[in-house]
Amino acid sequence: MANRETSRLAPDPNSSGMTFSNYHSDPNVLSIPNSNSRDRRDSNITSTSISTSINHEGYEFSYLKIIFVIVLFIISMITFVSQTELTSLLFTNYGFDEPILLLYLNHGSWWVLWVVQFVSIALLKSFKRYLNHIKGYDELNGKRWKGFRKAFASSVKAQHQNIFHTAELTTKANNSNYQIIYNDSTKSFKNYSTFFKSEALLYMIKMSVLLSIILNVAGVTWFIAMGLSTGSDVTAIYNCSAFTAYVFAIPILKEKFSWIKANSVITAVAGVFVVAYMGSSNQSNDANNYPYRLMGNLIILVGAILYGLYEVFYKKWCCPPSEIVSARRQATFSNFVMCLMGISTFFLLGIGMLTVHFSGLHHFKIPTNSKAILCIVLSLISNHLFSVSFLGLMSLTSPVLSSVASLLTILVVGVFEWTFRGIIITFAQLFGYLLIIIGFSLLSYASWNEISKEDVDDGYITDAESTYSASLA
């Protein structure tokens, strides 16, 4: 993810008020004070049937899934550009020359986003419930307000109960011998010890460790190759990971071979080669300036293979089955997996860097310039948003489509630098950009059924002091 990185909940667009559908699914929906229980039961029955009808037709849920994909795609494009430009500024203007350290800061801090997510959601829900309490409303299940601390703890627990249920489904999909503890999606653990000692969480940790190793080795190959070969070679070869992802997806994900998909990937990768090799006029002396060019190219080829493998294995090992898990929960779960990968990187790569630092092989230096530190912080934020949106895209679509979509960032960066930095775009580059767009468009057409596939209305756990409900997605 090195060169690509130097490179949640979605609202219901149909809700313009208190409809039956969101009445059933919103954990913060209130009942009218002094309403009788029979009216509540009738309302719940009506809302359930309407939600089922909508899900059966498939229009609303497919629409929401497409919205998810589009939003994540736009976020990934914007944050890729910002991280690329901030990293470029950091290396050129402030003399920062610690790429491995920057890689560690990026991947090793991925765990932060999950903490931010469950804390912010818990605070928001607790605050809303407090406002409902002071207005005199009762919640649907008759539970009373018991204080902000209990409301916050209840929300945090409910979020982890949903994660645990999704982890069980993911483990079951990859291990047929695994026995799901809670078959009812609205029931889960009471004590956190059950969650932390569970076989499902252990499985997710193991897979996250393996994925973090593959990802970071691929990232390190990019930095090593940049010192041995040309930037054009490294860019072109590393982005062949889109093709290797498709090659691995056929045997590992059992994806059917498609000439349209294969040609679209080849077209997009060809566009990258055109941009890389025909975008600069200073190509004649590359062979003389880089005596170890072949070695560098072989190293980055290994990185491209590993990155394609990482994308496919992520989809295989860490994505819940879309047939029984909603788009909303898939996107949320990808953030949790990202957290586990961040923790793995923090310890594994951190131990390696400490060993190198104290052994004297290399001394890592953190910049002291305040502007350089600001660039690093903003770059980390961009990286986090890009990574979580990219993993979300892989969860909701396929690693092949996500990988080819990431090639569009080459176009976006080129347009940005032409607009704001005055870097000229040649006709050859325009032709390469066109090939990338054509390849992505063809692949989107071939993958449309996967993108717009009807979403499921799975059950999930809300706050313990609120009502059980179905997913918004």
UniProtKB/TrEMBL annotation:
One GO-annotated biological process of the protein: intracellular calcium ion homeostasis
One term of GO molecular function: enzyme regulator activity
Q: What are the protein's UniProt keywords?
A: Membrane, Transmembrane, Transmembrane helix
Q: Which Pfam families match?
A: CSG2
Protein name as annotated: EamA domain-containing protein
**Highest taxon in the source lineage:** Eukaryota
Annotated region described as Disordered, given as residue ranges: 1-28
Does the keyword section mention Secreted?
Answer: no
Biased region (Polar residues) positions are 13-25
TM annotation in the entry: 63-81, 101-124, 200-224, 236-253, 260-278, 290-310, 331-351, 371-393, 400-416, 422-443
**InterPro entries given in the database record:** Csg2, EmrE-like, Solute_c_fam_35_mem_F3/F4
Ubl conjugation: is it a keyword of this entry? no
Entry GO CC? endoplasmic reticulum membrane
